[in-house]
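Morning F.,

Quick status update on the modeling queue. The single chain you submitted on Monday has been processed. Sequence for confirmation:
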Amino acid sequence: MDPFMVEALAEARQGLAEGGVPIGAVLVRDGVIIGRGHNGRVQEGNPILHAEIACLRNAGRIGDYRNTVLYSTCMPCFLCGGAVVQFGIPRVVAGEARTGRGSWDWLKSHGVEVVDLDLDECWQLMQGFVGRHPALWAEDCGAFAPR
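Structure tokens below.
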């Protein structure tokens, strides 16, 4: 498995262990992780603290995102996809997009390269969570929740 996705999965598992949504992300520049984060919406009571947003916050002000790649355990939602486009992150690598396509098409329409690794490990982590906490998932990513 891609070593950066391994790190994103570690973040997702940390979020789950804290009682949150198991999504993790890392921001990579020139082969080095410069930011990492996990969904902290439940833990911190912050509706916009998605994994990708936490990752970008933890990376700090880096000025130029042209040589970065955002890894996320699942396809970013529109909130997180908006941050990708806003900052000019050129490439997103998702662990899976079966739980929801999120902002995939929108990202591509804005010139972002989108890669779906379609990893069973990422999908199973999300499906287990969604199955146990459907209302929490619907609150977090309602447009992608099973109805």
